[in-house]
Amino acid sequence: MKYRRTTLIIFLAPVLLFYFVIFLAPTVNTFLLSFFHATKFVDGNNTFVGLRNYLELFKSPLFKKSVSNVFLLWIIGGFFTFFFSFMFIFLLRSGIKGKSFFRSIIYLPNLIPVVAATTMWTQYIYHPKHGFFIKFFSTIGLDSLAAIQWTGTTMIFWSMMIAITWGSIGWFVIILYAGIDRIPNELFESATLDGAGKFRQFTSITMPLLRDVIRICITMFTIITLNHFAYPKLFTSVNVVRETYVPAVYMYELAFGMSNGASGGKILLGKGSAVGVLILIIIITFSVLINKIFDKFDKVEY
Amino acid sequence: MKYRLLMLQILFVVSISLFANGQNEVTQDENVTLTWWSMWLEDEAQADVVRSAVSAYEDDNPDVTVDVQFKGREVRNMIIAALEAGEEIDITDMDPAVATLNYSDYFLPLDEYLTDDILGILPNSLVYQDLTPQGKVLAIPTAPYIVAVFYNKDHFKEAGISSEPETWDEFLDVCEKLKSIGKYPITFDSDAYTDVLLGYGMQRAVGYEGFHDAMNDKTGESWKDSRVLAMAEAFETLWDDGNWDPNTPQYLFPAGQQELALGNVTMYVNGSWFPSEVLPVTGTDFNWGTFSFPMIPEGVSNNHGLMMGTNGSVIVAKSLNPSEAFELISYTISEDIQKEYVEKVGGLPVHVDVNPQGPLVDASKLVVASDFGMGWAAGLYDAGELAGNVFIPTFRDLVLGTISAEDFVLKMADGTAEFYSTTE
Predict the structure, then answer these.
(1) Residues B103, B245 within the same domain
(2) Contacts of A41 in chain B (CB under 8 A)
(3) Which residues have CB under 8 Å from B422's CB, separation 6+?
């Protein structure tokens, strides 16, 4: 037994060291930096300011706007992401021919790099003259849809949400589908024999047995949404506009002192770190809440 | 026992490999290696020019090896972390304004290297702007730019426009003539260049200092100046008279500037990199013209104030070879390399004896004619969050016809007052 413990330590040590150096130490450093007015990563010139960075964030209209944007992405984007995910799963399990082909098509958006995806959406699909939407809707006579200014100031946030949702669905379909595949078919067959329709089977068998998988998916969706950076940064590729601003972009502009950004070009590493800490706190809070909500449902096993 | 011995041997080998140092020791006093983190990308024309400069320098200095790494624009975000981590870098590229604002501790003041020979080939306006608080020069300008109205000369000729507008009325008259030949007079990408339009508008209306006074006035009342209203009305008229490409509200960069390149629109307020950016679409036959942003009705400023700036090369303060590094940078601003820069990149040259070519000939004349130089967007971003949260969105709504001139003034005033009252 003794040498097994030694073996365990020897083989775990590199991983733990890696975790500590790459993840834990920087996280702790970021947390400490959030209490300083810092312009450098490693230096003694940083000034301790206590909670000032956090107080400034809570007063910042731009930060509040970014949080409300990401909250909308979570609520409404989340609803449509999971709605379409389940819809595609329903379709795939309906016995449709070419299931593998459709599964690949559904997952394809996840394989497209974000740079390519945002360029496709902004410069092709949404383009006001040559775009797919305007041509398609005009061709089929839906002039009111063709007239929508998809990348105008009123719609740009929703247009970005559509693009993000499109890019997310496939991944959750794969995870949820794998979870459903583990449910024994006998349960569905028995339910069918007992006269249960597809919808009843979905609500009474699939959803309860998928509880833990759904919990994980919602938690992961929360983490991904609160950390959104690439889509907002690339959707308006020169300057991120107020309508699509998110906390991660705000953090980036403060920490790196973007000259056309929120800090007016000054490096505000401490304040940027505070944004990162707040994102982490929100994620942890949401995760705890999600677990508490799901714990209220009885655990079902098969 | 055997198993334990085997595990200890494995652990020993792994530990040794973790601490192995594969670097060769540099021989002292023989070869010097200069490391340059360049802001250009490998396949950019500017990178070709840098390679030429490096090659010429190495030919003249056989005991020096230059390791130039093309990091792209993100070098600005990487460099400080790299320097703090102990990376040995000698040269990097940076906007002097950014270097001065944030990084003056990291870079070497270059004043002692600015001999008369060097100063003689550089325009003063580019060398001495953006000095440190101690009055030191941190960067050698290498890629200057201006912001002006770029236009299609063929459209002007077809419309019978014989001179470039200097006043707002002349500008509106030009727009009417362009519309008569079926061209959209003007467009822009609102996510990219709203800031320069606002900067020029306000500088022309109330002057550079007046603009900054309005940004810093915590009551917001400075925005209610009649000249600001006149500026807003000028832009309101521009939209109401149908002078903008009607799809402008939806253009995201680079869609708007492509419309000029495709010949559908005539004018666009942009930086002097514009012709080279759209060269794949325009080809080399495009007849470019440039004029300074016109005067605003009732405004205090003429049309000679010009937004200008430069990227530059800086030497890291901890460089072991600053003299060699400066000499290398001086090769990039030599006459031969600058001629290559103009030819390959199509940018504005730094060397006073090198003339720009083609699209930027007119642009360079604006530099000579300018009596006032200002930074990007007339320093709009000194307002920090106010710029992105209030000023730019509100001005964009005015330009694109969503709000009236009166509403613009009120929103700017109220937004400024509210920002200062909630954040202080």
Answers:
(1) no
(2) 80-81, 84
(3) A59, A61
**Of the listed ranges A140-144, A164-168, B93-97, the one predicted with least confidence:** B93-97
In a domain, B380, yes or no: yes
Main-chain phi, psi angles of B298, to 5 degrees:
65, 5
Q: Tens of pLDDT along B253-278?
A: 999 999 999 999 999 999 999 999 99
The pLDDT tens digits for A252-269 are 999 988 877 788 888 899
Q: Chain A: residue nearest B82 by CA?
A: A41
Is residue B23, in this structure, part of any structural domain at all?
no
How far apart CA A286 and CA A226 sit, in angstroms, is 10
State ipTM: 0.88
Rounded CA-CA distance B215/A162 in Å is: 36
pLDDT confidence of residue A205: 87
User: Chain A partners of B191 at a C-beta cutoff of 8 Å?
Assistant: 236-239, 241
Q: Is A15 helix (H, G, I), strand (E, B) or coil?
A: helix
Residue with tokens 């090198």: B354
B378: CATH: 3.40.190.10
Q: What is the band of A202 on the pLDDT scale with cuts at 50, 70, 90?
A: confident
Q: Which of B87, B130, B274, B385 has the most A C-beta neighbours within 10 Å, making it the best mutation to test the interface with A?
A: B385
Q: Measured between alpha carbons, how far is B331 from A81 in angstroms, rounded to an integer?
A: 56
Instruction: Tell me which chain B residues have a C-beta less than 8 angstroms from the C-beta of A241.
Output: 190-191, 388, 392-393
What b-and-e string marks burial along B68-104, b requiring 16 or more CB atoms within 10 Å of the CB?
bebbeeebbebbbebbeeeeebbbbbbbbbbbbbbbb
Q: Name the average pLDDT for chain A.
A: 91
User: What's the predicted TM-score (pTM) here?
Assistant: 0.89
Instruction: Give the number of A-B residue pairs with CB atoms closer than 8 Å.
Output: 129
DSSP B349-391: -SSTT----GGGHHHHHHHHH-SEEE-GGGGGGGGTHHIIIII
Q: Do A262 and B191 touch (CB under 8 A)?
A: no
CA nearest to B418 within chain A: A61
pLDDT averaged per 10 residues in sequence order, chain B, 424 residues = 63 57 47 94 93 96 95 88 91 89 88 89 74 83 94 97 96 98 97 97 97 96 97 98 97 96 97 93 93 96 93 94 95 94 91 89 89 92 93 97 97 96 85
- In a mutational test of the A interface, the residue from B80, B145, B250 whose CB has the highest number of chain A CBs within 10 Å is B250
Instruction: Tell me the C-alpha distance between B199 and B383, whole Å.
Output: 12
Of B11, B84, B95, the CB nearest to A41: B84
Same structural domain, B396 and B247: yes
Q: Where in chain A is the domain with CATH 1.10.3720.10?
A: 34-295
Out of B95, B193, B419, whose CB is closest to A61? B419
Residues B258 and B112 in one domain: no
Q: By residue range, what is the domain housing residue B282?
A: 146-307+373-423
**B183 and B66, same structural domain?**
no
| Whether B191 and A239 lie within 8 Å, measured CB to CB | yes
B308 strand-pairing partners:
B146
**Token couple for A89:** 């799963």
Closest chain A residue to B387 measured between Cα atoms?
A262
CATH number for the segment(s) A34-295: 1.10.3720.10
CB contacts, 8 Å: B377 with chain A: 260
Domain total for chain B? 2
